[in-house]
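Input record, target 12 of the design panel.
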């Protein structure tokens, strides 16, 4: 039996409970169908087979989940941080124990290749550990004193919160939001993406088996326009942490306005990788190709615009095209696969439409630009050259293994092109001129920048975007600022005179 066949057999065994019992909602510690009894199919992008029936939650299910989160809030929020920490560390350990099951399930549900997904569960566990360790001090604030007053600030959990996640790396992204919310003392209602619901259900089961009290984390599956919308409008939900498209973020902001919802948005990107002619080109080729062709290019931080100094443009893009052509596209559970199938036929059609647009706009397709295989949502790793910044392929987030290469003459033009998009999530700069790197990073419109490096995440650092790429930051202590309210209490230090009115 080949390694792929062996992995497929294991994946089918892991997913058997979903195939038989469906992907249920999880409310107040119980696995439940949608109140309406409705379901929808979740389809594997590998071969378009139905993996499972998913509970199609809607308003009533969200209301039940919010009621559970609200009921669980007083006890969880008052649980000492050290005790919350212990439980969340156990969750991290339980995730690690089931890392293979999570990875295999995610590969079949999303099409992401195992070589990347095998680390996603471990990253999810790391998120739990990192935020768990901060739970005991999450409430702490500062003391400031005047001659008459002593002011003490502290933080308290904001209340039940809603977490809405996308389909690209669902398990990792869910933990990225849910772990700090729980560590802060909030309770959670999670609405996973409709295209990839399976590992959210695994997460809540793992968390409860590790000791998380029932009702602290609830999961309602369903579509954005009903389940998602109700969550953002519910008066008992105090904040919405959302990861997804910029357009959806804008809708959520409008939906939450009536209840003055606090929002945290991690949205789209059209991130530049900028390569100057003095850079270490071998490393730059590796990093640029890794950042667009890993995770199927379905990655908010992917470097989807390659800006190359014109003196090295032809040589550099030829090298990138060569890598793109050699990348193995295949079954996500094949250990050799780099690019698996895109998440869903609808998304595949969107990506294919950009292949057509590129041709119409007059760009050159230096690699890929075609669908591959029959059955399944497979596309070839693609490079567009001879592009300019006005083209749709340079402005719009394609969210696939598709790179648009644009030449620039000098630093000023590189900066102008890099900033001339609606997004501002990440930027990658390749140069051996330190002063230039400083000038560029001072002026690039991006929330996160890497010099001479691909994206290497360090959890204590802030994660988030500017412009249409987001509002708010995660990581470090920033997540706690979102999930907690800062309050100030003032005590008198001395008997001071109080103004007397009316006499
Ligand atoms: P999406 O916006 O279509 O959906 C995300 C989630 O929002 C889903 O759960 C969906 O059901 C829900 N939703 C849709 N409409 C809603 C509404 N009206 N009210 C409430 N919820 C609603 O995004 P997607 O296609 O699933 O994911 C891809 C996008 O996510 C890309 O734009 C990508 O850049 C972005 N993303 C950003 C980051 C980041 O950190 N900045 C990380 C990963 C993905």
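The sequence produced for target 12 reads:
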């Amino acid at each position: 039996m080949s390694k792929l066949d062996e992995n497929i057999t294991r994946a089918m065994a892991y997913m058997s409970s979903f195939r038989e019992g469906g992907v249920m909602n999880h409310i107040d510690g119980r696995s439940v169908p949608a109140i309406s009894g409705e379901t929808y199919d979740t389809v594997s992008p590998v071969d378009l087979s139905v993996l499972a029936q998913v509970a199609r939650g809607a308003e009533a299910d969200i209301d039940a989940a919010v009621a559970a989160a609200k009921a669980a809030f007083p006890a969880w929020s008052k649980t000492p941080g050290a005790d919350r920490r212990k439980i969340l560390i156990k969750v991290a350990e339980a995730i690690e124990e089931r890392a293979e099951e999570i990875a295999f399930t995610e590969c079949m549900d999303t099409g992401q290749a195992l070589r990347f997904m095998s680390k996603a569960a471990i990253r999810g566990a790391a998120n739990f550990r990192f935020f768990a360790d901060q739970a005991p001090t999450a409430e702490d604030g500062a003391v400031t004193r005047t001659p008459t007053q002593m002011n003490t600030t502290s933080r308290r959990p904001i209340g039940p919160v809603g977490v809405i996640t996308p389909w690209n790396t669902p398990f990792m992204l869910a933990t990225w939001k849910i772990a700090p919310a729980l560590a802060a003392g909030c309770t959670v209602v999670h609405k996973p993406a409709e295209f990839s619901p399976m590992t959210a259900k695994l997460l809540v089961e793992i968390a409860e088996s590790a000791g998380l009290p029932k009702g602290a984390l609830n999961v309602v599956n369903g579509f954005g326009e009903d389940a998602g919308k109700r969550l953002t409008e519910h008066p008992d939900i105090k904040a919405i942490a959302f990861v997804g498209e910029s357009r959806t973020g804008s809708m959520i902001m409008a939906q939450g306005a009536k209840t003055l919802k606090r929002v945290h948005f991690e949205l789209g990107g059209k991130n530049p990788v900028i390569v100057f002619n003095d850079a270490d080109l071998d490393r730059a080729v590796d990093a640029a190709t890794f950042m667009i062709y890993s995770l199927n290019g379905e990655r908010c931080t992917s470097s989807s615009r390659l800006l190359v100094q014109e003196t090295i443009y032809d040589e550099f893009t030829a090298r990138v095209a060569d890598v793109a052509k050699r990348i193995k596209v295949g079954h996500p559970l094949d250990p050799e696969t780099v690019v698996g199938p895109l998440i869903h036929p609808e998304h595949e059609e969107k990506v294919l439409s950009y292949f057509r647009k590129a041709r119409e706009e007059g760009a050159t397709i230096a690699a890929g630009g075609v669908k591959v295989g029959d059955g399944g949502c497979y596309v070839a790793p693609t490079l567009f050259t001879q592009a300019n910044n006005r083209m749709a392929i340079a402005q719009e987030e394609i969210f696939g293994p598709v790179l648009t290469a644009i030449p620039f003459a000098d630093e000023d033009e590189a900066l102008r092109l890099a900033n001339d998009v609606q997004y501002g999530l990440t930027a990658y700069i390749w140069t051996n001129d330190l002063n230039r790197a400083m000038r560029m990073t001072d002026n690039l419109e991006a929330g996160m920048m890497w010099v001479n490096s691909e994206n290497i995440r360090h959890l204590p650092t802030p994660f988030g975007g500017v412009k249409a790429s987001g509002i708010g930051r995660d990581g470090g202590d920033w997540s706690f600022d979102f999930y907690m309210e800062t309050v100030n209490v003032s005590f008198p230090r001395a008997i001071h005179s109080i103004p007397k009115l009316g006499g």
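The two ends are 95 Å apart (CA to CA).
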